[in-house]
Records
---
Amino acid sequence: NWGQRTVPTGLDSVIAIAAGALHSLALKPDGRVVAWGQNTYRQRNVPAGLKGVVAISAGGYHNLALRENGTVVAWGRNNDGQANVPSGLTGVTAIFAGGFHSIALKSDGPLVAWGRDSDGQVSIPEGMQVAQPGIIRPDLLQIKVQANDGANLVAATISVTLVDDPDEDID
């Protein structure tokens, strides 16, 4: 146990969670990221001054944070370049941290990937993009967390609704 199962005391009002191999992340409503668990590769060392975060993803031993301005911040293990965000990457709407690679979805549809490519995990097929990238509406984000004693997280379910128009009424 590297502490990944022990939620930090006082951690409340969480809007998103992510779990890496031996570490965990939580996103607070004010855009701050909290990390706990193993720190062998500095995956628990949230970059100083990181704020305005709207999404998080935990890879094997690295993390990604999507900022409200569409840029990505990465930290933790970087043995295969998985924490080297491509220069000039902007307009990102979604992120995913894999075991040793990372992927970002840009607002106009293309995917950008970096890190280990030993099995083609960052070799995105030519022309592949998301047909209609959506907008995540925070008011439609639902998180259900169940804990066995208030300190140890047992399960979490996250439901996201993507819409084309952020002002669209959803029934």
---
Amino acid sequence: LDAETICDEVISALHHGDTWHDDVVLLVVKNSPHDRNTYDDHHPSDPLELSRIRASVREWLTSREIDEPVIDDVIIALGEATSNVVRHAYVDGNSGGMRVRITVADSSVDVAVSDQGTWRAPSPDGGGMGLVSIESIADDVDLSTTPDGTALRFRIALGGSLPLVLVLVAS
């Protein structure tokens, strides 16, 4: 039943007559099926959506009192992962979405970004540094591809991050 129906039924059951002899307050609370420690949202694969995703996740992690250096690492790695979906997942004019799921566990922030696009192998000419950047920030990076899409999972420890040193060698 919806909240309004529940209120109507309770008020009808309590009310006997035309007038009330005292004030009545009725509060109906609906439990959310979502776990407080899990962020789970679907987003369009659109470049304009990337900053919204980062802002939403930053706000969510901040509300869970995650340390700022950990939040920064999550946002950097998440930004790379979601940018890869926008750039690479949907080809030949196809469009689609992505799912971002983040769970705050006892000792880590676990992130999963998935799409229903087509995996493309890295170009022989080289490519971006997105996955390399994620691997330098996160632990337990797992990239899996199927005909139904791609999923990238990674974990960032809650104990703080090590300084990021990225060395690029041009040949």
---
Amino acid sequence: VWLAKKVDTGERFAIKQIRRNEKDTREETRARREALIMAHLRGSCFVLRVLYTYQNKIDRFLVLDYFEGGSLQTQLEMSYFYDRRKACFAENRAKFHAAEILLALRHMHARHVCHRDLKLSNVFMKADGHIALGDFGLARLNVEPHRFPCHTFCGTVEYLAPEILKGEKYG
């Protein structure tokens, strides 16, 4: 991910660079799907916005909102770095972030999107403390639990839900 600054306004953006690979059609499909899903989820301040996409012969680029605070993972690691006794957020802060994550999930589920890789490093924070979900590379569109559930074993192993480990359908 690159940090870019618009020359005339000074506005900052994150540019996610994804290597194009004709040999790996799964990776190409994943990159296209990520841009499509992020565009589909517009309208919520709790979901990272894709502003532009472009490509050349080698790479595909997603121009995204820039979140100055980094990820919740980074924030948690910083709190531990400054005080080794506190490897956690204060209760009020944790409740605040949890509420915003729930609002993001409600928005996604209302649009039949399942993230499938929800973890601290995929929750990004603005300087004012508000969050947005990002990294939709494993997300799935058109998920309806009773009609079109998910059944793929995917995600970050340490964060897998029990129903995925049991091989059950989810979504």
